[in-house]
Design goal:
It contains six helices and 14 strands. It is of the alpha/beta class and 204 residues long. The relative contact order is 0.17.
């Protein structure tokens, strides 16, 4: 069985595919509804803006399909913009309705206090145990590029966060939905370990 990497023109697809396959996943990059239905698990990558992302997901008739597959129990992993799309809405592009698979919203960083985008390496701080964090040492650093973040930062879905003047949820998840605000595929040896953990989680 293959893991479907959902293609909605949101960028970074080949980097995600290479990292996932190095971690042991058999993947297909697709927007074909039957391939997505037949996949063993789903990955929603993304680089870009939420308004464009949701418009493309709607244009390709993927919004209801993703929700249906998750409701059936299929595992879904969102990365960067793909993680933000898991929530109810985003302040980016006005107020954009997202997938609503996790409670909460995506907000702009506070004005005047922080350099935006949040770009570069930052430390992961574990908030609660999860198997995708297995083997990570304290003070592990990962690579971020984003201008919006999930709020609030201390809810039960937050597995790990980074401090950027405000707590930035970095790894989130509930049941069969998992998300990463940073890019594991750009995070060196730590990212390789996280990808292996993602692969193990998706295949269970």
């Amino acid at each position: 069985m293959k893991t479907a990497i959902i293609d909605y023109d949101a960028g970074n697809l080949m980097n995600v595919k290479r990292a996932a396959e190095r971690a042991g996943l058999n993947t297909v990059v697709t927007r074909d509804r039957e391939e997505i239905r037949n996949a063993s698990a789903l990955i929603l990558p993304g680089v870009g803006a939420m308004g464009d992302a949701m418009e493309k997901l709607g244009r390709y008739d993927l919004i209801s399909l993703i929700k249906e597959e998750v409701q059936r129990g299929k595992k879904l992993c969102g990365i960067c913009l793909g993680m933000q799309a898991l929530y109810e809405c985003s302040e980016e592009n006005g107020m954009t309705k997202a997938l609503g698979l996790l409670p909460g919203k995506i907000a702009a960083f506070p004005q005047g206090k922080l350099k935006v985008p949040h770009m570069g390496w930052n430390e992961l701080v574990l908030r609660r145990p999860h198997e995708v964090m297995t083997g990570l040492l304290p003070h592990s650093y990962v690579y971020f590029v984003h201008s919006y973040y999930k709020v609030p930062g201390d809810t039960d879905d937050v597995i790990a966060y980074s401090d950027y003047g405000v707590p930035v949820p970095a790894v989130v998840g509930k049941d069969n939905v998992l998300g990463f605000q940073f890019h594991p595929e750009k995070s060196g040896d730590i990212g390789i370990l996280i990808w292996k953990n993602i692969a193990s989680w998706l295949q269970k």
